[in-house]
Amino acid sequence: MHPPNSESPNVDSILTICLFASFSDGEKCEREREQVTRMAEELGSADIAALSRQILMGKLSLSDACAALQTKQEKMLAYEMARAVCEAGGSISADEQTFLTELRGHLALAAAEASSIDREVDKISAAPLISSLPELTAPDNGSMILKYAILNGALELLPQTLATVAIIPLQMKMVYRIGKSHGVELGTSNIKDFLATAGIGIGSQVLEGFARKMMSGLGKKYIGKMAGRIANQATGSAFSFASTYAIGQLAERYYGNGGRLPTTEVKTLVTTLTEEGKNLYTRYAPEIQQRASTLDAASVLSLVRGKSTV
């Protein structure tokens, strides 16, 4: 990871590059646009909403955003975050690969520098669904969902950008385990389809986590203090806890019911379950903070790759 930077980075430029990454796949662009709009409203960020509009109207270019980044550290961070947004869910489309190649050129990153970042992101984003640990013969899915929600809430309290990247593969691993407990063997594409049906944008969820870190200054360990940016780190933790809880509870109902829930009912249920998760957050906040104190880069990677238990 990158060493501290005493200078304030160009936050808007880095977020702009992440937005370009989110919109780079034509197949899911419309869904990501909707998710980014919702994200901007939830964050209360006029900046993100304005940047998104400028990109979609062709008034803001990727080259301009990259040109504003002055230090090697900022450029490598921007590429790391963009790569993570593109790779959310475990794969990169042809359009996203084209975007990343263009981005490397604008940032003037050497092949070795980009490859090093790619490997770091791949370790987490491309983690296998299947754990190397034996599954419980009679899993308590309610308890398991709560453990994943607490873990993902804890990850948002960490300053590392790659801690946010770990949330998606952990959510996917949770859904895989829930499906398996109901006799359904899921692959990555099945889980992505399930999340899409629920109206959950994978790339935009990663982007939202990054935006919260950038705007609250939680990334200062790597990119310096954020002048004039005020946000509560607990907000991101609560969001990740609630979204993970909602995804888990929805998966339990969906696969427990043989994969039969009307689309309109699914979206309503997601809203209800997310609110339920937000209400539960206060109760479990001490456990989330305690869990965060036990995490470091090695333990997070072990969890994501299924080499240690949640």
Overview of the structural elements:
- This protein has 310 residues and is mainly α.
- Helix content is 69%, strand content 0%.
- It contains 16 helices and no strands.
- It is globular.
Shape from CA axes?
globular
Count of individual helical segments: 16
- Give the number of DSSP strands: 0
Q: On the 0-100 scale, what is the average pLDDT?
A: 81
Order of helices and strands: HHHHHHHHHHHHHHHH
State the share of residues found in helices, binned by percent: 55-70%
**Helix/strand/pairing category:** mainly alpha
Low-pLDDT parts are: 1-8, 218-232
How would you summarize what this structure contains?
With 310 residues, the protein is mainly α.
Keywords summarizing the entry:
globular, disordered N terminus, 16 helices, mainly alpha
Set out the fold topology.
Blueprint: H1 11-22, H2 29-43, H3 46-56, H4 62-67, H5 72-87, H6 94-107, H7 111-125, H8 141-155, H9 161-165, H10 167-181, H11 188-197, H12 202-216, H13 220-223, H14 233-256, H15 263-292, H16 297-304
Helix pairs in contact: 1-3, 1-5, 1-12, 2-3, 2-12, 5-6, 5-7, 5-12, 8-10, 8-14, 8-15, 10-14, 12-14, 14-15
